[in-house]
Design brief:
Elements: H1 3-59, E1 77-83, H2 93-110, E2 114-120, H3 122-130, E3 135-139, H4 148-163, E4 169-179, E5 182-191, H5 202-211, H6 223-298
Parallel strand pairs: 1-2, 1-4, 2-3
Antiparallel strand pairs: 4-5
Amino acid sequence: MSQRDVKERISSIKNIQKITRAMEMMSAARLRRAEQRISALRPYAGAIRRMTRQAADAAGGELGALPILKQHETQDNVGFLLVTADRGLAGAFNSQILRAGLRAASELEAEGKAVHYSASGRRGVSSLAFRQKDVVGAYTGFTERPTYADARAIAHDLVAAYIDGKVDRVEIFYNGYVSPLVQELRRETLLPLQEATIVADDSDEADENESGHHALVEYEPDPEEILARLVPDYVEISIYRALLESAASELGARMTAMRNASENAGELIQDYTLEMNRARQAEITQEIMEVVAGAEALV
């Protein structure tokens, strides 16, 4: 490789490094806002989940009186919601969701059950379509900054599919946000309510442990009627929380990926610069040897 080729390659890598550094800074700035949105939502989401769990406990045997609360006799049809991103360049962020969803689907299909896919994010929708999976619900264009309306639209379709008997169980796969460097793969059951993953916040558990007992609540109207209103909100807020967690995880993963790309670009620049200097020294040494040989010929 000539010095000119090496210089062009170094220049190209430097341009790429500028782009990756800019993307890292943009992701870091957006990540701070995403963290604030998660922090603001968590108390409300925890309260909705706690109220839903308490009402479900109070309803007891009457839990299946309404269609949205009814647990289907069989679970031959399972609905999967895979929460991915609209864009790539985020390391294994999208691929680990797809791998987990497809692995779980293979296990269910081996048991003779059918899986109905829904996905948010262009990466998930396109990857499922590439694998010739039938995507019954595709939701794109909002993954970096989701709104509650986006979660409501997804929840409406999933709840309708459950009430209509198209699916007997609804599960969601998403990347939970732990830190900019750590994203935790999570799989939660949304419906039926009897099997739902309703987890209280640590603060809620602490309050309960300190009090030593649960507060006695009288329901008016009946708990099952209250649940009929709470469950759609519970599904919506659970999906919205997953979307926000996924958005923050995406930005953290992209920030980390771009930082690693910038560092790798720096190492490549150093290697090519060293190679170019060696080539230049070899050329200078060759020229000196030619001059010396010419001088000796004249003697």
